[in-house]
UniProtKB/TrEMBL annotation:
GO MF entries: ATP binding; ATP hydrolysis activity
One Pfam family recorded for the sequence: ClpB_D2-small
Name of the protein in question: ClpB family mitochondrial disaggregase
GO terms under biological process: cellular response to heat
Classification of source organism: Eukaryota, Metazoa, Chordata, Craniata, Vertebrata
Every AAA+ ATPase domain range: 223-382
Length: 540
């Protein structure tokens, strides 16, 4: 398909042709089959009137080019459309080159990569101040990077275009900061985190308060922000770290670094952390942490199960936390004062869990004395606070005995405590897990799954203090998903049916506990219980 207009027409003819095409339903953001848009072509070829008309019609000034270069594109097209010999692939390459030069521009190198370039990149390459200003005034982002990581100004010659781009970069940064500040006021971090994490209000508030200080300039810029998350397994420590990274960075793959410290239990494994010194095997590869921090110095770094790390690794981390810099095996220093470091540990998890349960029992007793109508309303985590005395007399001695370094603990900005789930939070966890499987049932088998409150209460009883939310996940899989799988295998589930999950109180499952049953709900709201045969014993 040709572009929206051929560039060898006069400007008046092009505009009239474009209006006719728009009326016929051609979208202003329509792409050439090789990846570029009409706005990119117009910007590259100094078609000012066309640029203006396209923008007024709704063309996106920040759309990125999907064309890379002649050679990469011909290779990509060849994989999908040609299984032929080298001659056929050369003809394809020549065809792409002719199309690019004919419909886009012959002034650009056929070898250079243009993937991700916007119309502003092309107007800059054309050294066209008029088009650059028009695009910027229409909302083009001067800080947007192409596939090589370059902003438009990276391609500007010295002169008016470079000056205009630099001026607008400053304006854009200021406007962006204002928008982000307004968004933070409208939608605080606490609220964002609570959308993804059940319970742990105390932990969420502590972390959000520290990050708010950092975002608004009320922090010590000479040192990075350091957290230590304490609590049982499966209680939300890692998930909170991930959500902080997602909030701080749009690209979580780059902005979130996770280091499993169980891989650094031996002294010689320090080299994996920062890289081997010169003369040793693996010197050129660099360290796992240093390589990632060099790519993103302001990342959110998670040191998972830090209590398992070798003391020599802790020494390196102490330098990282204290000075905000790290020297790799090659002797190069990485500045990372803007990074956020989060450590998780199961140290003292038993003491924290037992103390949390005791606090909940005390809160429940108080609520009973007040004749509360609904106990769940008074079992929220933000009403349960660990006392300073417990932290100093119980937790700190355990941490000091394990890490054996006061200066290491002293560099931690906030020690965050994760408490066991209360009953209302367990009900939310069960509901979330059932909703996950209900969505799978609908997507994979067109089956609608329903349940009521007694089912939530029964499954919440499978909570194990030591395994946290994972114990709920396993309970749902064991008591619900196993039944669904068996019923499906035995062809008991009609296509497109509705299933209701119910508590069968008169059945005896194990030790007299009530069991769960599956019912097929008919169109007239009648139901029948599925007769699911138990699996045969392997001996039979």
């Amino acid at each position: 398909m040709r572009m929206l207009f051929p560039l060898f027409y006069s400007k008046t003819t092009i505009i009239l042709l474009f209006f006719r095409l728009i009326k016929e339903g051609v979208a202003p953001n329509h792409r050439h089959r090789l990846g570029w848009t009409a706005l990119m072509v117009a910007a590259m070829n100094r078609q000012h009137s066309v640029v203006k008309v396209l923008l007024e019609a709704g063309a996106d000034p920040n759309a990125g080019d999907e064309f890379s270069n002649v050679y990469d594109t011909s290779r990509e097209k060849g994989i999908h459309s040609l299984e032929g010999n080298d001659g056929e692939k050369e003809r394809l390459k020549e065809m792409i080159l002719v199309s690019r030069e004919d419909e886009f521009s012959s002034r650009l190198s056929s070898r250079a990569s243009f993937r991700g370039c916007t119309a502003l990149h092309y107007a800059t390459l054309a050294d066209d101040p008029h088009a650059v200003r028009t695009l910027l005034e229409a909302g083009a982002n001067p800080l947007q990077t192409n596939g090589l990581g370059h902003t438009p100004r990276a391609y500007a010659k010295e002169g008016e275009v470079s000056t205009v781009l630099q001026e607008w970069e400053g304006k854009f940064k200021e406007l962006q900061a204002q928008r982000e500040a307004a968004e933070r006021r409208r939608f605080p971090l606490e609220r964002r985190l609570k959308e993804h994490i059940i319970g742990q209000e105390g932990a969420i508030n502590t972390v959000a308060s520290a990050i708010r200080r950092k975002e608004n300039g009320w922090y010590d810029e000479e040192h990075p922000l350091v957290f230590l998350f304490l609590g049982s397994s499966g209680i939300g420590k890692t998930e909170l770290a991930k959500q902080v990274a997602r909030y701080m960075h749009k690209d979580i793959k780059k902005g979130f670094i996770r280091m499993d410290m169980s891989e650094f239990q031996e002294k010689h494994e320090v080299a994996k952390f920062i890289g081997s010194p010169p003369g040793y095997v693996g010197h050129e590869e660099g360290g796992q942490l240093t390589k990632l921090l060099r790519a993103c110095p302001n990342a959110v770094v998670l040191f998972d199960e830090v209590d398992k790390a070798h003391p020599d690794v802790l020494t390196i981390m102490l330098q990282l936390f204290d000075e905000g810099r790290l020297t790799d095996g090659k002797g190069k220093t990485i500045e990372c004062k803007d990074a956020i470091f989060i450590m998780t540990s199961n140290v003292a998890s038993e003491e924290i869990a037992q103390h949390g349960l005791q606090l909940r029992q005390e809160a429940e007793a108080i609520s009973r004395r007040k004749l509360a109508d609904n106990l769940e309303d008074v079992q929220k985590s933000d009403d349960i606070k660990i006392s300073r005395q417990f932290k100093e007399t119980v937790i700190r001695p355990i941490l000091k005995a394990h890490f054996r370094r006061d200066e290491f603990l002293g560099r931690i900005n906030e020690i965050v405590y994760f408490l066991p789930f209360c009953h209302s939070e367990l009900l939310q966890l069960v509901s979330k897990e059932l909703s996950f499987w209900a969505k799978k049932a609908k997507q994979r088998h067109d089956i609608t799954l329903q349940w009521d409150r007694p089912v939530l209460d029964l499954l919440a009883g499978g909570y194990n203090l030591h395994y946290g939310a994972r114990s709920i996940k396993h309970e749902v899989e064991r008591r619900v998903v196993n039944q669904l799988a068996a019923a499906y295998e035995q062809e008991l589930l009609p296509k497109g049916c509705t299933l209701r999950l119910c508590v069968q109180s008169d059945g005896q499952e194990e030790r007299g506990a009530p069991s769960l049953r599956l019912e097929v709900v008919g169109e007239d709201s009648s139901s029948r219980t599925l007769d699911i045969r138990p699996p045969l014993n392997p001996e039979h």
